[in-house]
Amino acid sequence: MKDMIPMNTQLLPANDESLSLAARLLADGQLVAFPTETVYGLGANALDAQAVLGIFAAKGRPGDNPLIVHIHDRRQLADICEVTPDALRLMDAFWPGPLTIILPRKPGVPNEVTANLDTVAVRMPSHPVAQALLRACDLPIAAPSANRSGKPSPTAARHVFDDMDGRIPLIIDGGESDVGLESTVISLAGDKPCILRPGGITQAMLESVLGPVELAGSILRPLEKGEKALSPGMMYKHYSPDGQVTLIEGAEADVVEALRRLYAHAAGEGHRACVMCFTEHMDALRDCAPHDIGSKTDASEVAHRLFNTLRLLDEEKMDVIFSEVVPPEGVGLAVMNRLGRAAAFRTVQAKEITS
Ligand code: AMP
Ligand code: MG
After folding, report:
1. Nearest CA to 28 among 42, 48, 11?
2. How high is the pLDDT of residue 1?
3. From the CA of 228, which ligand is nearest?
4. How many whole angstroms from 153 Cα to the centroid of ligand 2?
5. Which of 278, 269, 212, 209 is nearest to 244 (CA)?
6. Is 229 in the pocket of ligand 1 (CB under 6 A)?
7. Which long-range contacts (CB under 8 A, 24 or more apart) does 334-338 make?
8. Ligand 1 pocket, 68 CB below 6 A?
9. Residues with Cβ–ion distance below 5 A, ligand 2
10. Nearest C-alpha to atom 20 of ligand 1 is from which residue?
11. Region 267-290: what's the mean pLDDT?
12. Distance, CA 4 to ligand 1 centroid (Å)?
C-alpha cells in the first residue's frame, strides 16, 4: 500500500466549479469523494492502477476486497466486462440506480480493482451529482464507500470528512444519501443469478425481471468457519459501532418492555447505554436514551437513518446499545444484513427478558 502523506482536504458544495475541479483531480490520478443515492463513494480512475491503490490506502481497506466500477454510459462497459442478456434486462429495469452487477471482466481492468478475480462489479448511479461528475471526467470510476474500513458507510459529506480529513484532496457535498445503505449486489457470473448483498433493489424486484434469484447464504448470519465469502466484503467485520449492539426480537409489547429492562440494568451497572427504537416507541422509551430509527411501518426510512444513527452512537461514546429489529423482507432484508453485522448477530428474545 502507498504511504499516506497528510494533505489538505477541501469540502465543497456540488456546482460546476467543484465538479470540474473533481474531474481534473480524477484525471490526474487523485481521489475524490462524491455523493450517490446509496452512500458516499470514494472514487479514482478505474483504469489507473496507482490511483486505485490510493483508495485502499485512504480507507485502510484490505487489498483482497474488490471495488465497484461506476459509469454514466453503457458504452463504457465495452472495455470493462462482458454484458450478458440478463445483465441488459437488469440495466433496462434498474439503471441508473442502486444495483451493482457482477459480470465476467475484460482484461483491461486493473487487478487492483477486481482483487484478481475474473469478475468485475459495475453500477450506474442515479444521483444527479454522481452522474454529472462521471460525465465531466468521462472515466470509469472505481469507488467503494467513502468511510474508513470498519466504520459505517457515510450517508452525509460530514461523515466522509470525519473519516477522510487529511487523506484525500476533495469531498463534494451533495446532501444526504437517499437510500442510506450500499447498493444491492447481484452476481450474474455464476450458474444462477445470486444476490451477494441485499440493498434498495429487492429480491422481489429482481425476480420480476429475471425469474428466480438466489440469496447468498451469509446475508443474515456470520460466515461459518472455512466458508468462502462469495462477495469478499462479507468476510470483514463491517458496519460496527464501538459499543456492543444487541438485537431484541419478539412481539411488539414484549420488545418495548425488554428494552426498558435491559436499558435499566445496563445503566444501573454504570454503562453508557441507549436503545434504538421505532418512532412509535420513542415516548414509551423516553427514559432509555432512545434513538429514533424510523417508523415500524417503513423499512426504507430505517435504511435511510441506520448508518447515521450508528455513527451518532460512537460520537456519544455509547458502550451498550439495544435495538429493535425489522422483518427481514424487502428493504428490511438489507437493514437486517447491516444491523446484524453491527451486532455481530447477537440477538435476544424479548420473552426471555420479560417472563
Ligand atoms: P463497498 O461499495 O465499499 O461496499 O464495496 C464493494 C462491495 O462489492 C464489496 O462488498 C465487494 O466485496 C463487492 N464486490 C466488488 N467486486 C466484486 C466481485 N467481482 N465479486 C464479488 N463481490 C464484489
Ligand atoms: Mg464499504
Report:
1. 48
2. 47
3. 1
4. 6
5. 269
6. no
7. 334/181, 334/184, 334/197, 334/198, 334/199, 334/200, 334/202, 334/303, 335/181, 335/299, 335/302, 335/303, 335/306, 336/220, 337/197, 337/198, 337/219, 337/220, 338/181, 338/238, 338/239, 338/306, 338/307
8. yes
9. 144-145
10. 231
11. 98
12. 23
Any ligand 1 atom below 6 A from CB of 120: yes
For 241-268, how does the pLDDT look when each residue is reduced to its tens digit (9 = 90+)? 899 999 999 999 999 999 999 999 999 9
Distance (angstroms) between ligand 2 centre and the Cα of 256 equals 32
pLDDT of 299 higher than 60: yes
Contact (Cβ atoms closer than 8 angstroms) between residue 61 and residue 145: no
Determine how β-strand 244-249 pairs with β-strand 320-323. Answer: parallel
Comparing 125-134, 211-220, 271-280, 346-355, the range with the smallest average pLDDT is 211-220
> Looking up cell 425476480, which residue turns up?
207
Phi (first) and psi of residue 53, to 5 degrees:
-60, -30
Q: How many CB atoms lie within 10 A of CB 67?
A: 26
Q: Please, what is the Cα angle at 330 between 95 and 203, to 5 degrees?
A: 55
pLDDT mean over 16-29? 98
Report the Cα 233 to chain-centroid distance in Å.
Answer: 10
Distance between alpha carbon 71 and the CA centroid of its chain, in Å?
18
**86-119, pLDDT tens digit by residue?**
999 999 999 999 999 999 999 999 999 999 999 9
Q: What is the pLDDT of residues 302-353, one digit of tens each?
A: 999 999 999 999 999 999 999 999 999 999 999 999 999 999 899 999 999 9
Reply yes or no: is the peptide bond before residue 66 cis, omega within 30 of 0. Answer: no
Q: Whose CA is nearest to atom 11 of ligand 1?
A: 233
Please report which helix (H) or strand (E) contains residue 45, including its range.
strand 41-45
Nearest CA to ligand 1 atom 22: 231
Residue linked to cell 469540502: 11
End-to-end CA distance of the chain: 54
Closest ligand by atom to 55 CA: 1
The count of other CB atoms within 10 Å of the CB of residue 117 is 17
Residue 119, helix vs strand vs coil: strand
Nearest CA to ligand 1 atom 23: 231
Q: Is the CB of 185 under 6 A from ligand 1?
A: yes
